[in-house]
Amino acid sequence: MRTLRVLVVSVLAALVGSLTVLVGAAPASAHEERPAEFPDGTGTRPTYLGLDNPRSRVVCTSDSAKRIRAMTPGRLRTANLALLDRCEFRSIQSAVNAITRRNTSVYILPGVYHETRWAQKKRSSYCSNLESASKDPLPLSTYIGSLSSPDTGGAAAADEDGSDPIALSYADQRACPHNLNLISIFGDRTPHDDSIRCNSRLCGTQLVGTGKRKLDVIIDNQFQKLNAIRADRAGGVLMRNFTVQQAEFNAVYVLETDGFVVDKLITRGNDEYGILAFASDHGLIQRTDNYFNGDSGIYPGSGSDLNADNPSFEPTRYAIEIRDNKSHDNTLGYSGTAGNSILAHGNEFYDNATGISTDSLFPGHPGLPQDHARWTRNKIYSNNENYYTRFVDQGVCDKPMPERGYMDGTVCPVVPVPVGTGVLIAGGNFNSTDHNWIYDNWRNGTMQFWVPAPLRDEFDPSKLYDTSNYNRSFGNKMGITPSGAEKHNGVDFWWDDQGLGNCWEDNTSSRGEPTDNFVVDPGPCADGGSRLVPGIAAKDAGFLSCSQYDRADPTWRHPPECEWFDSPSKPTDEAASPLPLAAPVSDGTATSGAPFDGTHLLTIGLGVIALGGLVLGRRRAG
């Protein structure tokens, strides 16, 4: 019989073994960002002002007239012809710079825009030497980053004009808007005061493509800059009806902004993200199509943490709404470190490596640990694409970025994800996965595990087990399509058995009863769900190894003991076997749901903290 003490020892031993292997790994860093803070929440979501806003600027290309004349006769063609007569700009950024009043629309007529003037603009002496000359420098220790290595194939991160730190203060971003950005909207004209509110003529700016289709207006960054469009402290910004492509970091980047709408956009062929919103509030992302992105198509990271002190499962309100989007053929359809207070509904996440992910893994993100996201009435299916073996292992991702074929479907994963998974909660609290169709995900329909607090630089022993707790999955149709066809998941629900208040109930499955790998019975939601026990060693140790993935390092492209990048087999009509444990659990002591006492939790906790420090030391080395 396996006693509680034996289980404690096995958990700690597995973590020790895993983390010891990782100590010698290469250092990891990424496209860093300045420390961010949340808006004060006084903003509002903007409303589309139409194609007849009297406050407007008009942008066109040399062939816009030809494209407009080829449009089908009707109101839209007539409106475009009228706007063509008013066109005075050949550059979107030039039109933005010419804005004199708030709530101005920049109408972008059909055509392809490269913004060459700003992409190739020679830097000032100050902007060329920010590492040494900055009047508002950021200490390296304050950077927000992730675990991925910077990409040596990128063109935007290096510039022959001078030094090019990635994490710039807001003041330096505003002073040097095109060091890292093709098109920029900076709304806070007083960067040195205590407020991050939009207080300039650029508040309420709307970028609007005037074509019939999203592809009628294309903004092609051509990997010239890190970000294609950056809206920073730009309260009231709205972007609508165009395509953005080939950015090294983000196609569309919304940061510290209170009130924004991203509507009817295509983002594609970007090394990392399609649409990234960070530390923002009162946001809406809707009716977009996002594909061929190396991280996620849609990323609502560090959503304004409105529910941080809310002990209830029900949120007070949501910060960002994500609805009626398609995100496919990416590493992740949706992701969000500290993706707090997010409502995602009516979306389709398919043909990615993993469909949806939220996490509390990466240090420095405001709002950790993650809490209060809801994913409801989404279609999450066929997320089985293995870009690790198809492109990383074949050397495609070692080529210079413009030569990798991103526009032809190459995806170079920036982050590690378990191929074949529908929904992944990697350390999150109070999340609701309900009333979705989750099917044809060959590894797991959903997956949830604990992320030890030291991995996000939190060493307070009392917070060691502060993820994943109070998550609920209910009313989902597992392995069943909206038409009623059966397309099994590998396992419907995967859980590492850790956490307090988690529950799964009232779900239906193509296999009759939903399949799972649970060792600990979580119990019904009405009874409070699961009791606090540490995660099962054989499960959590695998995550710790996989988290060290680094696509730029030949060794750490496949971390030891990581099976996430192995393509799962297509499920058969026989239910998949749950993950085997290192040793059988045969008595009820560790499986009945009874909590561990403080001594046992502290023992494991101190071990994880110490070993977590070794991993973090490795991460920061060099």
TrEMBL record:
Q: Transmembrane segments in this chain: where?
A: 599-617
**InterPro entries the UniProt entry points to:** Pectin_lyas_fold, Pectin_lyase_fold/virulence
Q: What's the name of the protein?
A: Right handed beta helix domain-containing protein
**Keyword annotations of the record:** Membrane, Signal, Transmembrane, Transmembrane helix
- What broad taxonomic lineage does this protein's source fall under? Bacteria, Bacillati, Actinomycetota, Actinomycetes, Propionibacteriales
Residue ranges for the region (Disordered) are 566-590
Superkingdom, taxonomy of origin: Bacteria
Signal peptide region = 1-30
Q: Biased-composition ranges for Low complexity?
A: 575-584
